[in-house]
Each structure stands twice: as C-alpha cells, then as structure tokens.
Specification:
Helices cover 37% and strands 30% of the residues. The protein is of the alpha+beta class and 183 residues long. The chain has one domain: Thiol Ester Dehydrase, Chain A (Roll). Strands 1, 2, 3, 4, 5 and 6 form a 6-stranded antiparallel beta sheet that branches. The longest helix is centred in the last third of the chain and has 25 residues, at 158-182.
C-alpha cells in the first residue's frame, strides 16, 4: 500500500520554504514503520521505490516543477528505476532521503535519491523520468524554461550514461518483440 500519510506530511514540510534551484538537493526525514518491513524485518525493496516517489514529489514542489506541470497539464512518469542497497534500514530507525537532479537530455530527467542514516548512504534509487501532457511527453526544456533555468545539463555520471544506454536497448528489444508478435 502506498504511504499516503507520509506523502501528505512531506507536502506540509514544503509550506513556507523557499523554492530551490533545479540542481539543489532536498532532504526529508522519516522513520521506519512496521508496514515498511519485509519478512527479513528490514525495509522492503519495493518500499524504497515508494519512499523515493514521496521524496521526488517533495523535490518537484520545492523546485517549482509542479507549477510548470500544472500549466502544461502534465504528470510525472517514471520510465525506469534502479536501486542499489548497501545497508539495512530496520524498525523505528530514523533516516533521510536526499533528492537531486543529476541532469537531463532531450527526453529524460535523471534523478537520484540517497537514503542516509548517520551520514552514511544506505541505498540509492535512481530514476529516469519525464512529464507527460495531453499531447505526450513534454520536453525537459519546457520545464527548464518554466523554472528559469538557462544552462545546459551538468554532465551525467558514467554509470547514468551506461544505464541510459541499457534502458534504451531494452526498450528497443521490447518494441521488437511486440512487432514480431503482431505479425
């Protein structure tokens, strides 16, 4: 089940906070609750993705991307996600999620969510996403213009470039398989 209460709470923490730059990092603080756990009594891998969704919404509000999305009648869509787990998060532990935009290309925005406890990165969720409007995907430049960003993307890390290539290759493979089935 999606953690709706946490989403509302994260939204409330945005009230009165200044907007951030598109390359700034946001931080939200949370605790591990019983419904976050799997049978091994640590945070479920799927819950990391749901918590990253909440952190991303927090970043969208703080950056002003939500305002631009409303104007464009667009919604955020995650095209691909990747997770790296390093250490456990256990019941009632406090942690933070640090969210930042890594960069963008002509289609995708690349974001990173670092799960941090006591200054140590416990896990990372990376997403490749876009905003989809009534006419289809909205180019990142539309959002950048709406946010007053007039510079190019910073260089993406090598791992993100390789991941992007892999995502594109898998997309091409799946489209090919669908085309074969339709024959």
């Amino acid at each position: 089940m999606f953690p709706w209460i946490r989403l509302v709470r994260a939204g409330l923490t945005c009230i009165g906070k200044p907007h951030i730059d598109v390359l700034d990092t946001t931080c939200i603080r949370m605790h591990v609750w019983p419904n976050d756990l799997d049978l091994n009594l640590h945070v479920n891998n799927g819950r990391y993705l749901a918590l990253a969704d909440i952190a991303r919404m927090h970043w969208f509000v703080r950056s002003g991307a939500v305002r631009v999305a409303r104007r464009e009648r667009a919604v955020p869509i995650v095209g691909d996600a990747m997770a790296k787990f390093r250490r456990d998060l256990k019941l009632f532990q406090k942690f933070e999620i640090h969210t930042r935009m890594l960069g963008w290309d002509a289609r995708w925005g690349f974001m990173e969510h670092r799960f941090v406890r006591a200054g140590r990165v416990l896990g990372v969720v990376a997403v490749r996403g876009l905003f989809k409007g009534p006419q289809g995907p909205v180019e990142p430049q539309v959002f950048l213009d709406g946010l007053g960003v007039h510079h190019d993307s910073p260089p993406l890390p090598a791992w993100a470039l390789e991941w992007n290539r892999g995502c594109e290759a898998l997309t091409a493979q799946l489209r090919g398989e669908e085309a074969e089935r339709r024959k």
